[in-house]
Every structure is written in C-alpha cells, then in structure tokens.
Amino acid sequence: MNIRIYPSKPHGSMEAMASKSDVHRALICAAFSDRETIIHSNSISRDMEATASCLRAAGAAICYDPGEGLFIVSPGRIRGEGPGDSVPADCRESGSTLRFLIPVFAAAGISTRFTGEGRLPERPLGPILFELSAHGISVKGEKLPISIKGSMTPGSFSLPGDISSQFVSGLLLAFPLMEGDSRLSLTTGLESQAYVDMTMDTMKRFGIRISMSERDGKLSFSYKKNEGHPGYVSPFHYEADGDWSNAAFFLAADMLLGGGQIKVNGLREDSVQGDRAIADILKELSHGEGCVLDASSVPDLVPICAVAMALTPGKHRIVNAGRLRIKESDRLSAISEGLQRMGADIRELPEELIIEGKAGELPGGTEVSSFNDHRIAMALSIGALFCREPVEITGAEAVEKSYPGFFDDLRRLGVRLERTGGTGCHL
Length: 427
Hints:
12 helices, alpha/beta, 4-stranded mixed sheet, globular
C-alpha cells in the first residue's frame, strides 16, 4: 500500500493507543497466572497478535474484543506435559515475542519450534540460546527456525547487557516458571534499562518481585521461589499504559507546529516507559539549538527524532545508534535515505547521524520507502506534513505491525492523504 501525504497542519485531540511493550509483557504474565485476566487495551497490533497467537498455540485461551478494547486471557493447560509434537510459534516480525518466549517456553517445559519473517531471522539470538543449553534445554538451530526441547533448570545465568534488553526481560519473565531460585548477572552495562524496568513493573503487578543490585556498574537480578507460592497471580483487571513510543510521532508534529495544536490523552507522566523521554527531547529541540541524542536508551525514538531535528535549526547528532541497523530495517540507513530524498541535510555514519536542521519545511515532492519498517513509515509520514510538495510513502502498510490506526488518526486530525496503490487493511 502506498500513501500520498499532502502538506498539512494537523490539529485536535486524540487518545494514545495501548503500549505494545506493556501488552506483550502482560499477555505473557496472564497466560501463566492462576486465573483469568482482563487486559484493558484500546488497540491490537500485529506484534501483540504474534505474542497472543504463540501463547494460544501453547494452550492459553486468548481473545480480543475490539468493541470493548479488552484481551481476555485464561491460562488453560499451557505447561508442557510429557512427550509430543513441538508447539508451532510463529513470531512474525516481532523481536519481543521471540526473545521473550524462547526462555519462557523453555522454563515452562514447552517443546517449541519458533519461526518468523522479515528481518527477524537475521537478529542475533546466540547469548540466550547458550544459556538455555547450559540449563538443560536441547536447542536446534542458531537462527530461525529454532527448536527447543526440555525443561530449563533454575540457577545462575549470565548475559551481556549491551546486545538486547529483550534477552534480560525474557529470562526474568521465565524465572517464576522454574522450580527454584535464579539469578541473572550481566557481563556489561545494560542498554535500554527502562524496558527491563517495565518488565519488572509488570511482573510486580502479577505478584512477582525481582531484586536488582549493582556492582562495578553491572547489574544483577535475583528471584527467590517461595514455598507454596503459585507464581504469577492475576490482578484480574490490568490497565495497559498509553504508548509513549507511538505518541512520539504526534508529539513531535505538535512541537514542529509550535505547540498546542495536537493533544494526546492517556499518557502517564509517571510511566516506567523509557520513551516518555520524548517530552524532554522535544523540549530541548524546541529551543532551536544543536541537540545531541544518545540513542542507547531510546532506540525506538530515533526515526521520529531524526525527522524533528531535520526540521529544527541547528546542528544535531544522534549517537550510539549502531544497534538500529538490526531492527526491522537498517533504521539509520532507512531514515537517512528517506529524509535525504525529502530534502533534508543528514549524514549517516556507522554509529550515528549528523543532521543540519532547516527551519519550517523541506522540499518534498518525492517518493520514499518504509523499508517495511513501521517506525520508518510513521516518521516519514510526519516529515511529509512539513514539505512544500506531497510525499508518497511506499510500503505504508508496515504500520500494521504496531499502530494499525495510524493513518486513520492522521486523517482525524485533518491531514490530507490518499491511498495510491497496493493493498492494505486500513484507509
């Protein structure tokens, strides 16, 4: 699906969609809880559905009511019991689904064959697979498809903290499913710690406490198994956070419009989401001076921040961003190419972007690719609003991964856009 976006000045109010990151974690905790859980989520995306479908394949009963905005999760017989065929777990393009569920299913003794699509098979899994093998799991494959068999034994685990926080979150989610105490020690500093904080916060809401300590700049996480404790305990009702990551696109548009034009409701100022940092980043940018953004803790904000920087005077840098090259696309290359085609002054280096911001608008009048990446599609769509001529986004259906209603929300805010080719569910 291609979308042509015309220069527009959106205005109005909107409701933040449910946090994809929060819902992933809540679905997993709910699927292994002691009773039914109702997760209040005003939206569902392809990534959320990937996690739900894998949990269904393992035995949980999960349905989504779009009218009420609810996931209803019943644990069912989700634990592996004896020999049998492997559970098929299609993670689609969701890195969170894959990296969370590999250790979780291993801890629950669920023999599983994991598959995926897009660039997911290219993303590294070595550190977590090594730990599984060291704790009693038979692993076949190094990249997707991967099969696991056995029941993971508790004890001491070790992971690097600078490859993916998802490895850390996945193991923490797995700890309560094993019969014994466990400890995870990181061999490096932890990047994107806010995502691990979110994991521990969700687990706490399901009755599980993880202890965290630090020594020589490296973190350790401990879980003590209590005798007679049932593990995850459902809160029955679970309210998903509003998503700062996806709200960032509209908050950036509002800043570029001068502020006060777009109001996003449903965002918690005290949220543990790391991407709530977008508020401070945009505040600094609005001062009109050069800004340096360290991407190590907020990688998902890089595409929209690059757009905002390209339209704000000053010399800006996005540093420590090398990990973005192994996301759904090579995000440094993708956002750099898209913005260059729209007329921005942006230079790509191996680990960073250097941007000479321009006031007000870009030339536009071009076609840019989403590179099948939801965050690239949305970021370039916001950039297109501030071009002199229309911009066509190819592969715009990529937004279905995390924000199916993105173009609907743009239209409701007064943006002029039209579908020009291909197929898609929305618009």
